[in-house]
Amino acid sequence: MTTDQTSIGSKLSAWWHRTFVDLVQQLQWSYLPPLMVYFAAGVSGLTSVVGAFFLKDYLDLSASFVAGLAFWAGIPWILKMPLGHVVDLFWRWKSLLILFGASLITLSLLTMYGLVTAPALMSSFMPLEDWYVVALLLAPSGYAIQDVVADAMTVEAVPKVDQSGAPFLPEETRAQHTTMQTLGRVSIISGFAAVAAVNIWIFSGTEELQESERLALYGQVYLIALTIPVLSVSGVVLHSFIQRQLIKCGHPPHTPDEATEVKWSILLGGLAFVVLSIVLGTADFEFAQETVFAVSLTVILYLMSRLLKELEPAQAKALIGTATVIFVFRAVPLPGPGLTWFEIDELGFDEQFLAILALLTSMLALLGLIVLRPFMATRSIAHVVVLLTIAAGVLALPNLALYYGVHEWTAAHTGGVVDARFIAILDTAVESPLGQIAMVPMLAWIARNAPVQLKATFFAVMASFTNMALSASSLSTKYLNQTYVVTRAVTNPETGEVTSTADYSQLGYLLISVAVISMIVPLATVFFVQNSRFRTSE
């Protein structure tokens, strides 16, 4: 064996150890409980395929309305601010918050079960579209509450001292928090992958099912999904048990040195925001979403300015730059539901194949998280976002290829091998995982630097700011769908009457606009931030 071959072998061995072996070696039992809550959030994707088909076939809601509905569904995630402070104030009773979140998730699943199995009965009380909106708003409320508790649990899960009782060095603590946050994203995406595999099995051989049989199968999926709240509740119970055992073994508890002071501005501000959102959401006001977004962003920026005073000036500037880059990356528009409708109507994608796409997407994201973990632990968030932005641009190409019929040409020249489904395997349209990867360095930074007495509050305020980006994404998606209108065929499940016809002539312009904006805006933001006083090397 030559010297060069030996050198290459050594480098590959070092990379394998740094990427995979080191991750396994850093696993600890204390990490498991928050990972269970995160996994439950990923398992929520079990109903995504069923929900997409039911929405497309039976609910007469426009693409722009559905995109706008995503804005309201994101409101609970913005409320992580007051929820995080509540967790700090009543940390010993966090299990009650998990139970409350689990109850909301259960109500959402049972509502959707009633919709797909007894639409006539449900419509006698309220239109099906209204029931769907209620279910869509209940679920994220439950998941947001549980996510707040899980975020704080990740801080508590990382030990302060080693087995001999000696405190960890700062670089060791950074590596552990990066690993914890990476595993959190891994758990969420693993949940996506697991339920995608379940969906593949559930919808195997269902092509010939009648409408009533198909709806009954949808109902079974929602009943299976009731395992989600059970999983998250089990996680917090296990967390309490493990923390008690660690304290018995001499590990110091993750408790503040002094009692957490009640910040009434956060609690009352959160309550006022809830009232404002409900009033505007139920009123016939054209700019309700924009008003809620502007008010909530103003409040979050104010709270951030107050919390940044808890940090050193250099840390505060770095965090501002980091948060700005992440915000813009997550705020870019998405195609909206029209792309999925096109794949179902024009390309013939069924439930099982969409589940296969979701599984492949999740597995690739999982691999990406593990492979990029050493990169994220040593490089700044600016480097990570540039890499992910370029990847997003490349992954947008299969969508355009499918819309403009490239699959017809490739199928004709490859004996039918490279057809629409072959190309779609390269596509991540079902659910983009890149935002999960981008959040890891940000979450690790917060977990590492947040003041102990305000750990959940600090975590929640910064997370709320980045979650605001998803609301901005929903708004921009709605605007694009209002500009480029996409419609699909809709059949009333009670009467069988066709209430809407399909028109995908504007979808190409929509996909091109999304791809261009998603590439140019994040890269420009990174350039300006890195050439300003808010330059981040974190």
UniProtKB/TrEMBL annotation:
Subcellular location: Membrane
Record keywords: Membrane, Transmembrane, Transmembrane helix, Transport
Highest rank taxon of the organism: Bacteria
Transmembrane segments: 35-54, 61-79, 91-116, 183-202, 222-242, 262-281, 287-304, 316-333, 353-372, 384-402, 507-529
The UniProt record lists the keyword Transport: yes
Pfam family, one: BT1
Keyword Membrane included in the entry's annotation: yes
PANTHER family in UniProt: FOLATE-BIOPTERIN TRANSPORTER 1, CHLOROPLASTIC
Name the record gives this protein: Folate-biopterin transporter
The organism of origin for this protein: Ruegeria atlantica
